[in-house]
Design the sequence.
């Protein structure tokens, strides 16, 4: 009988083991159920893993399709700075979109690289582009801090992000960044990745890459950095603006210490070294570019040329190194001479009044005004802005609060006595100043400058007139200095290269050289007597009369060509041009690069009525100084590309060892062939034979020793040049040269205003030229111009052209070509005409008879040293209206009745449409 307790027991199956008896008091464990659960968990994990893998694969394939190519890294062409250098390799300026200089990895200091690795990616040489250890460490640190305090990006990831992706923080970008990092590590070596990094990383202050940052922050080459400076740079990539050492020095110091600490941890430096550099001064520098301050027009001239010839891409991203012909010493001397000369001119014409007036000069209001104008505290001349706060009648002084220094100074009567009021259009001066209150009032905003005496001050004034200067090496054409205006910040218009102005008598040497080129002698006599020329007004058809005059309103009778040029006799020059004929002079002018259009070819060009730029005029004068060659102005000597390869070199640029000329170049004195047929020399094209060039130079020496530029004798060395002044004193010129240097100065107003008074070339332009040449030639020996083969020097009387004894008063050594000689006394009073038709030629002898209508000589005039080279009569103006070419933006155009490019209106004797403005 079966018991009830065993009723529901299942009998054991055959072939199976009976389970062991359970431990008393313990629950029974079913091992089959446990293994089943474990199996299910593993299976689920496998399924999830497979699903995750499939999902990861799908995401990877999707991201890979959208990944950028690595070609940008393979063909790395970073945007680099184009740097402009002076001839002595001083930095003149930079042009860039990103301020970057590429430096090969081999030239980067190893310690600097290790400093970056210590703080940015210490396991760089161990990971494969992604650093799991770094990720784990960053996650732990961020969870512990409760915020993001560390990043886990490797340097490879930063390269991927910087070159190929955006900086927007998204999961999608992070995935792409990691995938790209793996690809980059497969394709590039570790050093190649580092080279990309150190040249591309942004380090603040507009600096991209370590080379540019080193120059901007410390004004050093990257190879010259010390450990403390390396640590400072290595700490900047995290947040360049936040850790700027200029704006936030405390933050920068804390970041530097962190980097130094990491460098200690990885064994780069010792703790003692870290402590030492953590206490050292950063050694920051704000590297100024002083040449950019004094040569902005030169720099802009170079920029425009590169932009035109090479394009914006090369200019702003190409990393070109451009070496110019600019001489920093000469440039500074030229700029200072311009500023000083314009200031002296401005003082000669009195005070125009304060800059502005303030109604309230109480302390609170004054401090508020000063705070608003603190950036305007100095002018280009170095004048300091101030406000008149009190005028004391008892002691005659005025108290002035300076904007820059924030202190009070006293202006006495002595400091304001020059400030007489301007009267009339001619800028004459009013009565003398006897009291300070005649000039200044409370609330006047003025400029002041320190006086010559200690602790004295003078009232100052910013000039309104402008000036330009061009300085060239006449033998190579190098443009050594150029000033296009007094303040580039106010006007970028380059008056040296863009402004076409009438040169007046400064143009005459080209006309006289045409005469000498055709066999005329310096002692040839031409009548200086009144001249009347009839012409037809092109606008009205009316026949009118032109009566030109000399500046002195006098006429001097028979005058040698030497005396006519030295004292700027206008009637002689007109008769000379009439005699030769414009049709024969124009080809020679073309050789000098001074062509005149057909519609402007009339006798008024004898007085310099057609407009040229100062650069054109100085280039032409170089042919007199160098023996007859027209040299091309050279401002860019050499250009190197980003790889250091020379891609452009001008033959006259920086080759200082090859200044040699072909041995023999022979031209006939009456050679009339076109400039294109003249033989090309190594530096320039022959436009005059050497004897003719020397005859012209010798006469221009006389302008300095006996003529309108006699002030320059004080320089005490052989010099030559010519003054020029135009109608109503609107333009003042002096162009002069030594054997090794040619410099030209122009002074005037952009709106063609009147300079006033007796502001001739000798008064307004010559002193500027002298100040420059005094500085430029102070270290140079006083050498004379070399005399070419074929020239014979004879002593003559400078005014009569007759032979003179060496000790005679007024004796000069005149230059004669073969067949020419001094005049004999028996020729005194010989007949000559006023020019005829201009078809006949003059023989090469000492004198000659001029055409028909003989006139007898009068007395020979004496010497008039220092006499201004201008005349008072004005031939008048063309009809019609026109805009003047070459004027700066905003300047007025021609007024009714003025010729294109000429000053509106005329004065003096009668108008003469079709002839042009009378020039001095």
Sequence:
């Amino acid at each position: 009988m079966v018991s009830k307790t065993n009723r529901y027991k299942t009998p054991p199956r055959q072939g199976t083991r009976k389970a062991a008896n359970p431990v008393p008091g313990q629950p029974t464990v079913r091992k089959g159920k446990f293994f089943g659960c474990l199996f299910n968990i593993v299976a689920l994990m496998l399924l999830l893993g497979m699903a995750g893998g499939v999902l990861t694969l799908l995401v990877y394939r999707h991201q890979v399709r959208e990944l950028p190519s690595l070609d940008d890294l393979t063909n790395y062409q970073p945007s680099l700075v184009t740097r402009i250098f002076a001839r002595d390799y001083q930095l003149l300026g930079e042009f860039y979109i990103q301020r970057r200089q590429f430096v090969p990895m081999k030239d980067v200091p190893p310690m600097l690289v290790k400093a970056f690795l210590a703080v940015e990616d210490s396991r760089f040489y161990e990971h494969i582009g992604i650093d799991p250890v770094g990720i784990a460490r960053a996650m732990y640190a961020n969870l512990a801090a409760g915020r993001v305090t560390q990043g886990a990006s490797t340097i490879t990831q930063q390269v991927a992000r910087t070159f190929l992706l955006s900086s927007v923080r998204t999961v999608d970008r992070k995935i792409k960044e990691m995938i790209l990092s793996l690809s980059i590590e497969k394709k590039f070596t570790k050093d190649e990745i580092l080279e990309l990094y150190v040249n591309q990383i942004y380090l603040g202050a507009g600096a991209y890459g370590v080379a540019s940052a080193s120059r901007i922050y410390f004004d050093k080459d990257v190879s010259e950095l010390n450990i403390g400076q390396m640590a400072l740079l290595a700490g900047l990539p995290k947040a360049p603006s936040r850790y700027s050492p200029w704006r936030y020095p405390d933050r920068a110091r804390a970041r530097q210490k962190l980097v130094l600490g990491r460098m200690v941890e990885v064994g780069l430096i010792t703790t003692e070294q870290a402590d030492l550099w953590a206490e050292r001064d950063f050694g920051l520098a704000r590297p100024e570019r002083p040449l950019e301050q004094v040569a902005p027009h030169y720099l802009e001239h170079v920029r425009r040329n590169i932009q035109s010839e090479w394009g914006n891409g090369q200019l702003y991203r190409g990393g070109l190194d451009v070496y110019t012909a600019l001489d920093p010493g000469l440039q500074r001397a030229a700029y200072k001479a311009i500023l000083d000369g314009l200031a002296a001119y401005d003082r000669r014409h009195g005070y125009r009044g304060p800059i502005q007036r303030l109604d309230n000069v109480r302390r609170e209001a004054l401090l508020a005004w000063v705070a608003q104008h603190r950036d305007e505290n100095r002018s280009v001349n170095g004048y300091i802005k101030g406000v008149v706060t009190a005028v004391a009648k008892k002691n005659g002084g005025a108290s002035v609060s300076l904007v820059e220094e924030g202190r009070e100074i006293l202006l006495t009567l002595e400091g304001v006595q020059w400030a007489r009021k301007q009267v009339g259009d001619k800028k004459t001066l009013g009565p003398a100043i006897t009291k300070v209150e005649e000039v200044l009032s409370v609330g006047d905003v003025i400029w002041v400058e320190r006086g010559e005496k200690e602790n004295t001050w003078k009232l100052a004034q910013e000039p309104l007139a402008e000036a330009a200067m061009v300085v060239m090496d006449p033998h190579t054409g190098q443009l050594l200095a150029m000033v296009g205006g007094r303040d580039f910040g106010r006007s970028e218009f380059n008056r040296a290269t863009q402004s076409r102005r009438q040169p007046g008598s400064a143009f005459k040497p080209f006309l006289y050289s045409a005469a000498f080129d055709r066999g005329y002698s310096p002692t040839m006599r031409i009548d200086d007597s009144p001249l009347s020329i009839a012409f037809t007004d092109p606008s009205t058809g009316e026949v009118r009369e032109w009566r030109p005059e000399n500046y002195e309103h006098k006429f001097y009778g028979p005058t040698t060509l030497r005396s006519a040029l030295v004292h700027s006799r206008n009637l002689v020059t007109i008769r000379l041009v009439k005699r030769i004929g414009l049709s024969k002079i124009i080809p020679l002018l073309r050789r000098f690069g001074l062509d005149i259009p057909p519609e402007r070819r009339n006798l008024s060009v004898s007085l310099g009525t057609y407009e040229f730029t100062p650069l054109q005029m100085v280039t032409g004068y170089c042919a007199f100084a160098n023996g007859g060659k027209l040299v091309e102005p050279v401002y860019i000597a050499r250009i190197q590309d980003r790889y250091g390869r020379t891609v452009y070199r001008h033959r006259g640029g920086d080759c200082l060892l090859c200044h040699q000329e072909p041995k023999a170049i022979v031209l006939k004195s009456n050679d009339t062939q076109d400039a294109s047929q003249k033989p090309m020399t190594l530096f320039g094209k022959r436009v005059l034979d050497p004897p003719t060039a020397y005859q012209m130079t010798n006469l221009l020496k006389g302008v300095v020793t006996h003529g309108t530029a006699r002030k320059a004798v004080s320089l005490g060395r052989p010099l030559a040049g010519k003054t020029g002044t135009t109608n109503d004193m609107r333009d003042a010129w002096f162009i002069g040269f030594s054997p090794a240097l040619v410099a030209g100065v122009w002074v005037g107003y952009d709106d063609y205003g009147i300079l006033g008074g007796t502001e001739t070339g000798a008064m307004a332009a010559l002193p500027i030229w002298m100040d420059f040449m005094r500085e430029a030639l102070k270290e140079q020996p006083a050498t004379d111009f070399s005399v070419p083969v074929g020239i014979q020097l004879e002593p003559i009387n400078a005014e009569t052209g007759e032979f003179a004894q060496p000790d005679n008063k007024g004796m000069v050594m005149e230059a004669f070509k073969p067949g020419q000689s001094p005049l004999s006394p028996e020729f005194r009073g010989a007949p000559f005409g006023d020019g005829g038709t201009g078809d006949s030629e003059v023989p090469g002898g000492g004198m000659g008879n001029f055409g028909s209508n003989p006139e007898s000589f009068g007395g020979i005039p004496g010497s008039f040293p220092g006499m201004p080279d201008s005349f008072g009569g004005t031939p008048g103006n063309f009809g019609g209206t026109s805009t003047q070419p070459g004027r700066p933006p905003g300047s007025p155009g021609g007024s009714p009745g003025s010729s294109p490019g000429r000053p509106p209106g005329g004065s003096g004797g009668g108008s003469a449409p079709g002839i042009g403005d009378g020039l001095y």
